[in-house]
Amino acid sequence: MTLIWETNINKYSSRIRGRFYTILRPIVLHPTIQVLTWRDRTLLNLDIIFHDGSKLNGGETLAAGRDWVKLIGYTYEYWRPSEFFFAYEMEGD
Amino acid sequence: MTASILGASSTVAPTLDVQEATLDSDQEIIAEVYDITLDGTVVKTTTRTVTTASPRIPVAQTTTLQPALTKAEPTASEDQRVVHIMTREEVRGELRALEQKYGMTSKAFYDLWQAGKSPVVGIDRLRWVAFWEAWRERYQLPTVP
Question: Rounded to whole angstroms, what are the CA distances from B39 to A8, A70, B15, B68?
Answer without folding.
Answer: 28, 34, 16, 13
